Amino acid sequence: MPKKSDRRVPLPAGLLPLLSQPELETYYGVSDWTVLRWIEAGMPVHRLRTTGEKKEARRFDLAEVQAWMAQHSEQGTASA
User: Fold this and answer.
1) CA 18 to CA 16: how far, in whole Å?
2) What pLDDT sits at residue 2?
3) How far is CA 61 from CA 35, 36, 73, in A?
4) CB-CB contact of 50 with 57 (8 Å)
5) Is 31 helix (H, G, I), strand (E, B) or coil?
6) What are the Cα distances from residue 10, in Å, to 3, 13, 16?
7) Which of 24, 27, 40, 48 is most buried (CB neighbours < 10 A)?
8) DSSP SS3 for 26
9) Closest C-alpha to 60, from 31, 38, 77
10) Using one digit for the tens of pLDDT, what is the confidence trace for 36-68?
11) 59: β partners
């Protein structure tokens, strides 16, 4: 039986996974409070509902977030 590591396949070219909030916090080196402030300021977020869960899961497209950060850093509204 093949090992789990042998079954890994690379993502198709150009396809990037959505990041969870902790992954986004790690990427930018900020706290959860900062990410929540960014969401309130309009940072793009994909809200997902999982079956049987009342709490929604947030996922972030890194390219969308980077574009939002670039636009808002010019205006001085997105600070870490």
Assistant:
1) 7
2) 62
3) 14, 16, 18
4) yes
5) coil
6) 16, 9, 11
7) 24
8) helix
9) 38
10) 999 999 999 998 876 666 777 889 999 999 999
11) 20, 46
Report residue 77 as tokens.
């509204």
Residue whose tokens read 């198709």: 12
Cα separations in angstroms, 46 against 7, 14, 52, 65? 28, 19, 18, 11
Residue carrying structure tokens 């870490």:
80
Nearest CA-CA partner of 24 in 69, 72, 65, 78: 65
The burial class, CB within 10 Å (0-12 / 13-18 / 19+), for 65 is: buried
From residue 55, alpha-carbon distances to 7, 16, 17, 22, 47 in Å are: 32, 24, 21, 16, 10
